[in-house]
Amino acid sequence: MKKSLLFTMIGTLLLSTGLSSCSKSLNDKYLSKTKPTYQLEDHTDNYIDDVYRNYYQVLVYSYYDSNGDGIGDLNGLTQKLDYINDGDKNSTKSLGYDGIYTLPIFPSPTYHKYDATDYYNIDPDYGTLEDFDNFIDACELRGIDVILDLAINHTSNQHPWFKKACQDIRNVHEYDPVTGQPTEEAKALYPSLRYYHFTYNGTVKLDGTSWHGVSGTNWSYEGSFNSGMPDLNLDEQVVRDELKNIMKFWLDRGVRGFRLDAVQHFYDWDKSKNYEFLNTLSSWGEELTQNRDKKCFLVAEGPWSKTVSTYYENTNGVSYMNFNYGSNGQAELIQAVNKAAQYIKKIKLLEEKGEEIIYSTPEDFNGKSFYILNDGRGFATACGADYFRNSVEKWDERLYSANPNAIDSNFGVNHDTIRLINQLNGSFDVETDALQNACKFFWGLNNTLRGVSYNYYGEEIGMRAGTPSIEQNKDPDKRHPMYWSKTNTTGMTRYAPGGSPVEQYLEPADKQMEDQDSLWNFMREVLRAKATFPEIARGEQSFVKVGKFYTVMKKTYNGKSIHLIYCFGEEPQVIPLSELGLEEEPNEIKYSLSSSSSYYAKLTAETINVPAYSITII
Q1: Is 4 exposed, middle or buried (0-12, 13-18, 19+ CB in 10 A)?
Q2: pTM for the full model?
């Protein structure tokens, strides 16, 4: 390692102690008590109605129960649409999402419904096709696009296709000696056999797959997830015809598109065939909506790793959930927020010991700035601001070099991951506003990066998954009933089977809607900012400056640019204008997404002063 340079704090003022205990006098001294004028004005004309939307992800089962049976339903979701988007882009009583992504709603023997028994209907617990049509009509009135979760890697073992196939396979005793599958003659005699992968026991089985026996026979079927979810044979034309018809059925009913589940398992043994089939699905979507103003939008659950970039490289017309940023993948954004807290604690510890702090420079530490090199543990303590910059730069390079036309999908957390607040409560104080404000900042990061954003229901109020041990990792505890109210149980659903009741950290939705300092209102302001600035979701993004506790991102779209200052400090930061890395000094603060409704960013003749854990747009 080259000799490190010792950096002093030039350009920012770190004000001491915790995120939740910012000194009122210091806030009064450095910050404004009013929102920026631009933020108070009506800029709805800036809104662009295109594919770059903000989706609210809903598990209907756990959302809102309209008929008192304890299970959420489509009528309940329709009744709650004004909570999601009431049609007024300046509303203070609605979150402002312009998209809804529903987890599977097809008939199924399970609560999660990822194992369909009928792709052309609605699960009776959720309602009817008429209820769905009413839901779509209500969404259209509010400018909300709807995408459906479509699990076509497999069906339920209760699907009529599979039941018929298992019945017919009992009559078949001949198999292909190379593949172990039923012969073409058998498939011609029993067309149901084309829907699934069967192999005669003891013969060739494809790598990377799981097989389950058909009782009373020498045949097995493929089921990558479990025996209750037999995999469809996507090579067969009859299956492809069915899937295209399913897409047409729901597109004709008004959906914008689909979230494709588990696409890396379509062909576990041959990734190239995954690419081919995804391109086929994309071409179907384009064909089926060629005469519509809004084309079919497809987003896929690809690999939970950075290798998803290979999917962008080899497919077109499909967006992929970003597990580089998202939880259960690399979780880079959660790490950035957690590392910011750890960084500040380390600085305080070394200062208390009277030790000189040695910070890294890009030249001597692999392009990383302001990492603490003498942390006493034998490795560096990451600077949260620079960690964020580095993560975004590397991801953008990987993604857009693979496909310049890629549309990223940033989800943060979802139904398969631990809730955000559970993942942050180790770094931030549960007993103060610190944890809520950390959640605000995380969603500010996720929702202001380039691409489409997805927010899981309940994240707008910081819902908790479970206890810090086992329960938070169980799927049912990631899918708790929406926390509408402490006192009014109307519409509250039962827990998902296997779910464990848990006391929530933050207030329910009805309380947060009335609290200007709440996470709910912060999320609403972020979504309003995205509607105001098309550059946020669509613009090419690059970093022009990084400091110990802030970084500045430039976004450019259609010849216009904005700059976002991300403050990773737990106290207000006073940044000289000369330290922003801008070609011209700003003359106005346009938006201040602050963790406190009492204090906002302030522009002076020589500095820009930004609140703790905030995003300032200039």
Answers
A1: middle
A2: 0.94
